[in-house]
Amino acid sequence: MPAAFLNLAVCAAAEAGFAQYDSDACLINRYFARAKLGLHQDRDEKDAWAPIGSVSVGLPAIFLWGGKRRSDPVRRLRVENGDIAVWGGPARFVYHGVAPLQDGRHALTGAVPINLTFRRVF
After folding, report:
1. Are 56 and 83 in contact, with CB atoms under 8 Å apart?
2. Which is the most buried residue in 12, 39, 59, 74, by most CB within 10 A?
3. C-alpha–C-alpha distance, residues 55 and 25, integer Å
4. How many CA within 13 A on the CB side of residue 97?
5. Neighbours of 33 (CB within 10 A)
6. pLDDT at 15
7. Which parts of the chain sit beneath pLDDT 70?
8. How much is the pLDDT for 22?
9. What SS3 state is found at 100?
10. What domains can be seen in the chain, in order of their start residue?
């Protein structure tokens, strides 16, 4: 992972109260118009304490933030280019996703919004 990405993940986690966080993976998701990411929990990592960090680049999106059960109410949060979200601790296994994306263009990424997701997998 590039040092700049790792530094971003470490600094964002520290700001959110997760000192000593050391991400070892960065998923890069490219989305297209009308693409979505259904509600899910991230349970594949070996360290359940380690937070997840998410950086939005390009077009805005609606981040879905639910509860500990799939049937819990879901909040719709607009994320813009450069927005960062970090969640861990009691919120680590909250259901989350992305609503269907709208058409558009961004000066940086064109019609393709990008999301960087930082995790500690091992």
Report:
1. yes
2. 59
3. 14
4. 16
5. 13
6. 95
7. none
8. 87
9. coil
10. 3-119 (2.60.120.590)
Ordered DSSP codes for 37-80:
EEEE-----S-SSS-EEEEEESS-EEEEE--SSTTS--EEEEE-
Contact 99, 62 (CB under 8 A): yes
Alpha-carbon distance of 9 to 52, in angstroms, equals: 9
- Cβ 95 vs Cβ 69: under 8 Å: yes
d(CA 106, CA 57): 9
* Residues 6+ away with beta carbon under 8 Å from 19: 13
Closest CA to 70 of 35, 40, 98, 104: 40
